[in-house]
Write a structure and sequence with these properties.
Layout lengths: L22 H4 L3 E5 L4 H12 L4 E3 L11 H8 L4 E4 L6 H7 L9
Parallel strand pairs: 1-2, 1-3
Length: about 110
């Protein structure tokens, strides 16, 4: 009888000690992390630095408007890798003040 177990296309990280041998090499070059100053992005930037990345650019919204095409082009110019984590959010205070809205009419 055939197995009904489905395998994920993203099996997750390898077990400890079995890392990708190209991991350090892949972190070379210029890395752009949009949202790199935010909650998640700052942790990603730290993770990259701990693994040997040295040329990391985290554009700030005060200087770059990632809604504008020309600004996006400027940010990624010369990048070898782009990790896009930027988002427009309201923060914890906004989330507390604005309750989730349901689309149902019950």
């Amino acid at each position: 009888m055939a197995s009904t177990e489905r395998k994920s296309p993203h099996p997750g990280p390898p077990p400890k000690g079995e890392g990708n041998s190209n991991e350090k090499r892949n972190l070379k070059g210029r890395l752009v992390v949009t949202g790199g100053g935010g909650f998640l992005g700052s942790r990603v930037v730290n993770w990259l630095r701990q693994r040997g990345a040295s040329d990391i650019f985290a554009p700030r919204s005060e200087r770059f408007n990632l809604v504008e095409r020309d600004s996006c082009r400027e940010v990624v110019q010369g990048a070898d890798t782009v990790i896009h984590l930027a988002a427009r959010v309201g923060g914890i205070g906004f989330n507390r003040e604005t309750r989730a809205r349901s689309s149902s009419t019950t």
